[in-house]
């Protein structure tokens, strides 16, 4: 391939300013969020719209240039980082950032791939509607990246993952053709579900340029409570009770071990341990209510009183205001920050069937202790989805970096083996990218890998679309 | 191919009783529900379980025999009827009828493909859980067929289609391999979404043998109301208001024109017109409430009072009991029966964006009248999903069969053109099968058809799995 000729053609198509080749310009695009991967690229290419993106893909195909699509570059699995060959290009979708349409009566919004998630939320709110996808990176991640990785977040219990929030897509195929699948329909049974195939494929089957998203009526109130419990089994019983009594109003159910809350209190002196005595587990419950704050609070109190009567819950705090609700959420959100403040952890983004969470923790904690005696378990997460951030911290007084170096591989292998034995997944929210590609293939059946390879070959026979991600080479 | 040898091998595998070749035995499997298609088959084959199904598929592949998977044979698009060549076999999944597991704490149930939908509902209820998929054929359709066609029904507004109610699948591939994708996980981001590819593919990409389904907490009460309105636009405004005030408690929102209710009252003398005077449109609203019947009724009354104050609703009836709720639903369910009693109709199972329903009706009614003057419009359906059963009945005094013969093609073409212009779908719930296969291909873009063909070739290169369905040959 003639690199100079290719880059000239790119400049002709996109304009000089949108073909970045100097390291001062490209650096931010070439390292992943967790600084685990540092790639090289022939160029970072920034098309202006879907038609230009399609033309650019055709150009890459003509010159045989492998492409790495990228949104906000906030992924946690290295899915948007090029390899180190310097022969790939990054296609940044950030300039495709228009909200194309808000159809409040249809409860849909059509956004281009490069829109920040926060901007999608704002556009929905401006039409007095809710776009419920919410996650820590929402100020810098893009909706295209959210869909390419099927992002989760804190409201999955009620609203589902990014997949469930998408009705239609616009995609550039690996051949550079534009597929207009931007349907705003709740029902459409006319053939194969291409939409869900592109969602979660991490850009390996095509490049998402726009999406039609589901909106919801804005709830009148959100109300939060914190419950103290003795065990994960009691937390599961509380989940059952809350789902029976509140049904779809239950939008959040987050489990946090005593150690997590102690850690937050130690690191952030303004965040005191919330109860007068320690309890083994805490659960943060959130209701979203279309009636009123008073109705939500009354319902939360009724749930917690019933749980206390049944001996499931030992103590409880129900927020008196939105500010108090936010303070309880702040506790939960401080856990990863408190962890980071104490140094590196061995992190796992896993899910098991909700019913298996107590058994999984009971079986896996001792396995980790046998491998790494004294390691401290930082177990928290979205119990309502069976999704735990099952993290392992160095023993007190041990250097975190040295601990990580020695134990990461054996601990993670053991945790993933246990997840697999409990019919769970080693990547609940974050995807595979380069990071978990091989581990995932290890646990999947040969039949499933063969089906995935057949899909990849059918859509991208030249193997130019985000090669080396999701599937092992 | 040696037919006799193939049939002998089938008998060896399944036992003589489960290889049906006599017309007295096979007849019921060879005609579709609407008696639009009558096929012939080499045999109807009835495997006992998933392993036997996989072995059977391998046998068909070895002998080059095309396969037509079939569940309850209640489909409305001829997707489960073989062609007339007599060279295909029907594989009936009805004997795979075990509920394999109910995991109440995980809110999941694993059922084999041949389970009747009603039996799945019953198994969920026995565990004090709800499986919300519900449709007219539930006593005879199977869950495998529901998934293969991505069935809709009356609770889609709240719970989604069959697709949204499925977490995992077990599938026999067109090569006769068994894929165990029976995951009970709310989050799993490890590769391509094979599940959603098989769902809605009408058996053309593989053969579903079991599914892990989502359950929900049983609501404490269901409560129904009927509102009288002047126009579809007012119905849309009521939908907005009800979604804002009731959020996810709103589980049903059915539009019925005055003509529909008049027709029911004429045909079924026990079903009187519900209001003291005629109104252009009626809407049936249903709430599912996890608190109490009293709470649901009070909320419905509040919604309807607000709508009356805003001039959206003219009159309203709120059910006082479950019996009265059922009576209101009975009105809605009697519409297709009343239609049938008056002879054949030109039926359309279409959807447009919810916001486009008033404009679609306003634009399409006059087009139909120009083609078939005096035709009577039987317009009703799931307004909350944008899904209308937009049916056309012969003018008073005209023979329905003669009307159908003369007008079916021009009327349906015009209705579908209008649907397409409103960015809608010509098959909302029923799928394509053989019936709408060509019409659907007419409206889809070449890019989409090419992607669908690439999928079909990748999964079923020999073209033996339900050939001639979904995609034109």
TrEMBL record, chains A, B:
Coiled-coil ranges from the UniProt annotation: none
Cofactor(s) required for function per UniProt: FAD
Keywords recorded for this protein, A-Z: FAD, Flavoprotein
Superkingdom in the source lineage: Bacteria
Span of the signal peptide: none
FAD-binding PCMH-type domain mapped to chain residues: 37-218
InterPro entries (alphabetical): FAD-bd_oxidored_4_C (IPR004113), FAD-bd_PCMH (IPR016166), FAD-bd_PCMH-like_sf (IPR036318), FAD-bd_PCMH_sub1 (IPR016167), FAD-bd_PCMH_sub2 (IPR016169), FAD-linked_Oxase-like_C (IPR016164), FAD-oxidored/transferase_4 (IPR051264), Oxid_FAD_bind_N (IPR006094)
Family statement drawn from the similarity comment of this UniProt entry: Belongs to the FAD-binding oxidoreductase/transferase type 4 family.
The protein's name in its UniProt record: Hydroxyacid dehydrogenase
